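User: For a teaching handout, I'd like to show students what a predicted protein-ligand complex looks like in token form. I'll give you the sequence and the SMILES for NAP. Please answer with just the structure.
Assistant: Understood, here is the input followed by the structure.
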Amino acid sequence: MSQNILDKNPLIYSCIPRITAMCGDVMFLPNDSDTIVMNGRKFADEYAERVLKPRCIGFKGKYGRLPKLVTILVGENPASESYLRIKSRFFSTLCLDSEVLRLSKDINERDLLNTINSLNNNSNVDGILVQLPLPRHIDADKVIESISIERDVEGLSPGNVHAWAKAIPNLVPATALGVLALLKYYEISLEGKHTVIVGRSMIVGKPVLHLLLKENCTVTICHSRTKQLGRHTRQADILIAAVGKAHLITADMVKKGAVVVDVGVNFLDGKLVGDVDFKTVKSKTSYISPVPGGSGPATVSMLAGNLLLAAELQKTGDNKEQKECLRDYYKNYTIVTDTNYC
Ligand SMILES: NC(=O)c1ccc[n+]([C@@H]2O[C@H](COP(=O)([O-])OP(=O)(O)OC[C@H]3O[C@@H](n4cnc5c(N)ncnc54)[C@H](OP(=O)(O)O)[C@@H]3O)[C@@H](O)[C@H]2O)c1
């Protein structure tokens, strides 16, 4: 049922010599100037046209309204604002209904929990996302646990964490799915590859670890207490940076020919930059994702996919077979063009 994404994609055809280089056990870089910059926007556009839009239209036709996400933003945070801007722009091109609930940084925990509770019971809301980080006086775990499992489009509630840790497809953190989506879009072979993830958060590092293990990668995970970070990152066939420190990853920390996915969102001298020093690292890589334009748009596509999955699952009632079919349909982060599937 799954249609290969390469079938109508000239960009990818132009990458075929490089893909061949990646397919064997040894990765090599024939020529530095051949580095492929992974285009997250192109992936997002294609995924929107071929999967998300038709699915949205189908949903509206069946249920008379659009799938709806409510994002809760407490206080202000530049990285969250940037993410929300990208998300709103993308959602507005789809027929997805997205509302941002801006709450004061001084809101108390009980009021926030009550707000979530009323959204949990609103049959016109399909997905709820609480933008992290939250102010210190609020227990983020308690807040996330209060989101009902079926509306938890960030895949962070205990039931969803249990599912992705056991490789059961359901709602998985969108940023982690976005990393996998980029790797799959560029047909980077994963099995047996040594992947090093820098960052062990619940929204990126840990779910990426589980998704990559499922793809039979060998995975190392690094964090702030890792000694001699470069010694680990230099081993990576595939390096994923998810830290939040501008230009932490420099050229001397990257193996020649490696694939580098930069998840970081940082502001440096008023400019949006990643965790990877793109300018100097690029020439050492076979593939590299830029910031902006790499992991960000892929994440937003996956969030939209999660919202559709959540909305469609909630409409299936007790139909287990249909639920399983839907989870299968959305689990591959790749472009499945049969929009009548399930
Ligand atoms: N592209 C997107 O769509 C998207 C989405 C979400 C987040 N982001 C961005 O991704 C980055 C990571 O987000 P997050 O929520 O995962 O951040 P987080 O919760 O702050 O986690 C950061 C991780 O980096 C580790 N770390 C910190 N300093 C380090 C160092 N010097 N060396 C090695 N590891 C270090 C931390 O280690 P410890 O565990 O030891 O503290 C932690 O595991 C941020 O820039 C965020 O804005 C991007």
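For the handout, you might add this sentence: Residues 17-39+173-297 form a domain with the Rossmann fold fold (CATH 3.40.50.720).
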